Amino acid sequence: MSVTSVKKSATVKKPPRTKLYLIILIMVFFLIGSIYQTDATLSKLVSGAPEILKFIGEMFPPDWLFFADIWKPMAQTIQMSIIGTAIGALFAYPMALLAARNVTTSPWLYYPARFILNFARTIPDLLYAALFAVLVGFSATAGTLALIFFTFGILSKLSYESTEAIDPGPLEAMTAVGANKLKLIRFGVIPQVAPTYLAHLLYTFEVSIRASAILGLVGAGGIGLLLKNTLDLFRYDQSCAIVIYTLIVVVIIDLVSTRFRAYLLKGSAKPMSESRARTYKTIGWIALIGLIVWSVTGLELTGFQPTTWILTKAMISGLFHPDWAYVYIPEGEDLLRSLLETLSISYLGNFVSAFVCLPFAFWAAANMSRFRAVSGSGKFFLSVVRTIPEIIMALIFIKAVGPNAYAGVMALGLHSVGMLGKLYAEAIENMDMGPSEAMTAVGANIWQRMAYAVIPQVIPDFISYTLYRFEINVRSATLLGVIGAGGIGTPLIFALNARQWPRVGIILIGIIVTVSIIDYISGSLRKRIV
């Protein structure tokens, strides 16, 4: 076999050049517009580098003695995540079955179901927490309620997509012999999707832990509330201790969850006896029930406040009578300008991270190195980067470039390096190594193997993950304004604090419409690519 023949077999079909040039032109146009909108220049970052170093210097060395005060809020964070994930899953799975077209054949059912789950997913977790904090007070209850809705939005989407991807054969066979809908779900759907559903549940729990770590910034309890207090008191050494503590907990949960998800999706690497498998399942169920009992009994959940009903009525009234005048104001800040800035922050941050994360993704991919320690160190680095909340990163860059959209761009870009790097590394690990091994056998060097055997296989997944990350970044960018990092979050938090519900209503409408459009476009593109 020659190198030329291997190159031909490994290359994917290229799009027409005119279409490719048009896509590049559009990307460059959006890139230039985003740079202009956020006023992002390298000179600003370089001139502000001493301030970044000064801020980091104030964080180190961490206050190690403060660890003794962190464990209780961290336990509360884990308990909030467990309860929020468990209750959210109870609502998400039935909604996923309703939204799946191969289970629910009536468009009068699956279209409303998809609308509900898409609506729930468009509202960011921190916004849920801020709304519930107003209704039920600044407590863990607000954070738990926010995580329930957050889990519902993520898990229902992942689950209905997995349900639609199952083998239709058993369903068709059961339908042919007259099985009703309940039997169809019980014996035709659940046996196929149960491992995937559980894997998605573990993944959502990981995400909930990371999300709950910052919900306290709006008074929703957990470790985030302690982090907010240390930031308000300028005790950055204690803030650093909280970040390190959170990193340790998240890495442990990530490792355990990854092992379990790999077992659920791929099975055990070694043959296991039926009795041993049954024992492991029993231990797993006991551990799960124990964690739920620990969370329910250990978390101090408060009831509704005396003013909750009054505030709820005022909020609903304001949300259904939005401030339409705020949509466009010629002489000042308005909804359209804020949303445009939010999209610019998301696009530019995503664009930067998509390129910066590439070397780290290949570093973390196990099949790109002979030594497990090399890929393991890469995975650990990416885990560290994505564990640090965007809010902390935004604070660092605010010190350098000031409280503006540029700080939001850098925070989102750096945080997305950790998230995209992990997804890219998994795509590299899952690719077919046959073409690369064949090219090695005929004497191709590493650059030829990368160009003709690796990149053509992973580029569709890379593009798909980048589009998916852009959806998430649009939601994240709406929150950075809480600390002055630009975007729609700044007027939103002002309106929430001032109880200006008509203003909150129009901003929510703007966020929901924008995120829904982005989700639809991104989803359509990802389906065509993958």
Automatic annotation (TrEMBL):
Keywords: Cell membrane, Membrane, Transmembrane, Transmembrane helix, Transport
Residue intervals passing through the bilayer: 20-37, 78-100, 126-155, 207-227, 239-262, 282-301, 347-368, 380-398, 477-498, 504-522
Record's bilayer topology term: Multi-pass membrane protein
SUPFAM superfamilies, per database record: MetI-like
ABC transmembrane type-1 domain residues: 74-257, 339-522
Pfam families in the cross-refs: BPD_transp_1
Protein localization: Cell membrane
Cross-referenced PROSITE patterns: ABC_TM1
Family to which the UniProt record says this protein belongs: Belongs to the binding-protein-dependent transport system permease family.
Protein name: ABC transmembrane type-1 domain-containing protein
Organism per entry: Paenibacillus marchantiophytorum
